[in-house]
Amino acid sequence: MSAPLVRVSFPSQTRLLGLVRGVVTEVALQAGLEREPAEQVALAAEEAATNVIEHAYAGVSDGPVELRVDITPGELVIELLDQGREVDPRAVPRVDLERYQRERRRGGLGLHLMGRIMDGVAFSRREGCNVCRLTRRLP
Amino acid sequence: MSAPLVRVSFPSQTRLLGLVRGVVTEVALQAGLEREPAEQVALAAEEAATNVIEHAYAGVSDGPVELRVDITPGELVIELLDQGREVDPRAVPRVDLERYQRERRRGGLGLHLMGRIMDGVAFSRREGCNVCRLTRRLP
Amino acid sequence: MSELTVETRDLEQVTLVYPRGFINAHTVRLFEGELRRLVEQRRLRIVLNCADLAYIASAGLGAILGSIEEIREQGGDLRLSELNPTVRGIFEMLGFDRLYRIYASEWEAVSSFAATEGGAGTA
Amino acid sequence: MSELTVETRDLEQVTLVYPRGFINAHTVRLFEGELRRLVEQRRLRIVLNCADLAYIASAGLGAILGSIEEIREQGGDLRLSELNPTVRGIFEMLGFDRLYRIYASEWEAVSSFAATEGGAGTA
Ligand SMILES: Nc1ncnc2c1ncn2[C@@H]1O[C@H](COP(=O)(O)OP(=O)(O)O)[C@@H](O)[C@H]1O
Ligand SMILES: Nc1ncnc2c1ncn2[C@@H]1O[C@H](COP(=O)(O)OP(=O)(O)O)[C@@H](O)[C@H]1O
Q: What ligand has the least distance to the C-alpha of B130?
């Protein structure tokens, strides 16, 4: 993603999650998604941003976060970049809802949702940043 | 505005005006404005962005635009930056609605609205960019 | 996604116009085109029902201003109903409430044309 | 601006909970606190009326999951009503519709407790 359509920079504060949601909804609608899928994609982006704030930056309220949204011919591409703690996506647990409930566990739902909503969810490192890349095929 | 809370980069396309509106509404609400004034401030920002797209970049659809929104102790500060045609704000006309209607003129309403909604509207040049700075006192 | 749709409906001598969505620089051409079409068809008693108009930017206000004189010169008028608080606020901010008749309900706006026999002129 | 408010109201043996706004990582503590308070007060027949819930992120879903077992162990249940399509879609995506009883109306959700005498267990 060299020059994405829209780029938003903001600090790692949960009060700005609504902003992520709003931006992604708007661009998803422009990309041709209907209202409901657009809102789902926005939720996936919000989950990714939440993880950046809560895990990569755990506790820090001024960590720089960048949201990039692009419309390519066949896909909506959303990237979240941060300079926080390095993520090992393989360490990320899978969810078993029934067990989850029984054992009163918390967490894991966000990634699960992202996986259900998006066609692609990929974590990588790029120039010292964590990159979470979400893709959704366009109609 | 050295490091604004939120920074959004996008190309000079009117289809992205809704994005400007959404971002500014969200931050204005976070700044403590009620829904209606927040939406008015968002309209003022949209008018400024519209002018950048239609006048500074007249016709160009990939001119870089940057929206910056910041919450300072007493003020909400919104800036729009572009690298388009230089603006001479003194050349900008005042509106007389009755005459306007009689003479079937168009234009001038946007700046008029910006002036009614915001506490401050200022145009300047900064590092080769046009800067439109809108401020609104916070409650 | 449709950012703006504009339906029209004739009720007796009055044409109801229903913009749904928002009118800004991006969508104003559609709105303006509808107004122009009504003027060409001499459907000049117009009620703009704004119940589903989320917001209107200066481009939309300019489109209204730009057609009103022609409508009134030909004996018609454009009146408004059911503005939401944000849209109403914008109208008042620009003094549009002095230039246009604004009604709480569509019914009142439609009836107002019967009361004034054609309805030219401001309120 | 209030991003989330949570009102509760008792109706016979049932406690109605009305989240208004959205539940995400930013607002979840308030919601979680309300659920915890109900459990402490042993108000365990809970209907979460989602009519004014604009959306719920995983943090909110986690808060529901995190309290349900305790509620059910003590003979109560948490049931839901009036989910908007987006919220309903999220629930279904996670299989929450298999774990929780979801009703179209508040009335049906409330009555369901009378029908099952206490109402422990999933649907
Ligand atoms: N961006 C991230 N940086 C570091 N760790 C992460 C990140 N995203 C997810 N994780 C890890 O994966 C786990 C599951 O994430 P998620 O499904 O979103 O649930 P939750 O955030 O509620 O725990 C987290 O608890 C965390 O340990
Ligand atoms: N960012 C800008 N760059 C160049 N010219 C501008 C800019 N903003 C406003 N102007 C000038 O001021 C005039 C009035 O602007 P405005 O009140 O927004 O109405 P409109 O854009 O509908 O003409 C414009 O027609 C234009 O000539």
A: 2
| Per-residue pLDDT tens over the stretch B25-36 | 999 999 999 999
pLDDT digits (tens, 9 = 90+) for A3-49: 899 999 999 999 999 999 999 999 999 999 999 999 999 999 999 99
SS3 (DSSP) at D42: coil
What is the distance of C-alpha D101 from the center of its chain?
10
Please determine, for residue B113, whether its predicted confidence score (pLDDT) is greater than 50. yes
Q: Which residues line ligand 2 (CB under 6 A)?
A: B 47, 51-52, 54-56, 85, 87, 92, 107-111; C 58, 62
A89 pLDDT band, cuts 50/70/90, is low
Of residues B132 and B108, more confidence is placed in B132
B43-72 residues touching C, CB cutoff 8 A = 43, 46-47, 50, 53-54
By CB atoms closer than 10 A (0-12, 13-18, 19+), residue A139 is exposed
**Of A77, A74, A69, nearest to A26 (Cα)?**
A69
- Would you call D58 and A100 a contact, using CB atoms and an 8 Å cutoff? no
Spatial separation of the C-alpha atoms in residues A42 and A25, rounded to whole Å = 5
Which amino acid belongs to residue B33? L
Pocket-testing residue among A55, A86, A130, ligand 1, by greatest number of atoms within 8 A of Cβ: A55
CA distance B109 to B93: 10
Distance CA D62, CA A108 (A): 9
Task: State the Cα–Cα distance between residues B102 and B127, nearest whole angstrom.
Answer: 41
Give CA–CA dist A115/A120, Å, rounded.
7
Straight-line distance from the first to the last Cα atom of chain D, in angstroms, rounded to the nearest whole number: 37
Distances D18 to C109, D82, D100, D105, D121 between C-alpha atoms, Å: 38, 11, 17, 13, 22
Q: How far is CA A55 from CA A47, A59, A107, D23, in A?
A: 11, 8, 11, 19
User: Mean pLDDT in chain D?
Assistant: 91
Can you name the residues that pair with C14 across neighbouring β-strands?
A: C11
